[in-house]
Amino acid sequence: MSALLPTYARSGLSFARGEGAFLFDESGERYLDFSSGIAVTALGHAHPHLVETLKTQAEKVWHVSNLHGIPDQERLGRRLCDATFADRVSFTNSGAEAVEAAIKCARRYHFANGAPERYRLITFEGAFHGRTLATIAAGGQAKHLEGFGPPVDGFDQVTGFDIDAVKDAITGETAGILLEPIMGEGGMREVPYRFLQDLRALCDEEGILLVADEVQSGVGRTGRFYAHEWAEITPDIMASAKGLGGGFPIGACLATEAVGQTMVPGTHGSTFGGNPLAVAVGNAVLDIVLEPGFLEHVAQMGLRLKQQLAGLADEHSEIIAEVRGQGLMMGLKCKPENTKLVAALRERGMLTVPAGDNVVRLLPPLIVGEDEIDLGTRTIDAACVALKTGDAGHV
Ligand SMILES: *Cc1c(COP(=O)(O)O)cnc(C)c1O
């Protein structure tokens, strides 16, 4: 019996090492990694710049707590602000913690501005914001809430991307609107740009805050630094994590000065958040992602993948119902159970991630090349053929 809580249905694979877009198991078998540890290893495995940075920092200092200055944390915060809408950053160890910090910022802003009754956030059906008590309440999914007592109060869920439904949900207690610009776990559902623009305008009209959960869609994943940029809007608060550390755990809550200045000493904190190891690696990730031409590369690879997937969807319409997503955050809505396609791909040496709404997520590392995209497409083609003919074996 495993000593671990049985909270995961694990694949049975384990990996000895990785290199770029590939992982290798104990026997040396190679896997094309289009999962990136769920959108985390943004620069692939064992990226030389990240490896060098981590080794160098490991020999200097690992942890000092936030009771002291951490120059690399200041630097990472400054770089994130310079590259986004934000004026202030607070670092965390995970996505859920970044979303929690975002929720606290939204509530605190209204408290500090004489409206403590404004503490509720409007959220969307199918959303995913993490696994802490507040973030499962924000996500509102019954399967995540069941058995854990009364959900944390303060979230009002609406269905669909319907601006009138959002307007109807706003009350004198509403602090803001929380959403992912592309719903990741919920099935790679793209939020229409127009809807994001309408939400921004509505927030301005009502004096409430727009809170973006870019834990999955951020740090270049969609071909922009953050996905909301595609809609040419800015949020007031944003949660980031996953790709930010390239595999080292780090998250961040970003905010405008109007919001950030209300988080005075004592209102929030984290023992580990933004420690020297994490922020050294975070800075190294930004060295690459913010390099001129890098995001264009992501967008180009995303386009190549999307075009090839569209071809596969035509050819295998019995298997692929729809191609979704943006950049290197793609989804295949399946006709058979999505886990069947995930398994058929795994058997053919390719790793993907199932999502809600019967979708298979394709999350290649952002450094992926044309040959690897083409290999991925050929593997999906072979898996679809096998699923159609009922042949589960190797190609
Ligand atoms: C993964 C994810 C989270 C939670 O991040 P953790 O690091 O697992 O806590 C929150 N929001 C979104 C959109 C995510 O994809």
UniProtKB/TrEMBL annotation:
Its cofactor is pyridoxal 5'-phosphate. Its EC number is 2.6.1.11. The modification N6-(pyridoxal phosphate)lysine is found at residue 242. Its main location: cytoplasm. InterPro entries: AcOrn/SuccOrn_fam (IPR004636), Aminotrans_3 (IPR005814), Aminotrans_3_PPA_site (IPR049704), Class-III_PLP-dep_AT (IPR050103), PyrdxlP-dep_Trfase (IPR015424), PyrdxlP-dep_Trfase_major (IPR015421), PyrdxlP-dep_Trfase_small (IPR015422). Pyridoxal 5'-phosphate binds at residues 95-96, 128, 213-216, 271. One of its GO terms (biological process) is L-arginine biosynthetic process. GO terms for cellular component: cytoplasm. It comes from the Bacteria. N(2)-acetyl-L-ornithine binds at residues 131, 270. Pathway: Amino-acid biosynthesis; L-arginine biosynthesis; N(2)-acetyl-L-ornithine from L-glutamate: step 4/4. HAMAP family: ArgD_aminotrans_3. Belongs to the class-III pyridoxal-phosphate-dependent aminotransferase family. ArgD subfamily. NCBIfam families: argD (TIGR00707), PRK01278.1 (NF002325). This is Acetylornithine aminotransferase.
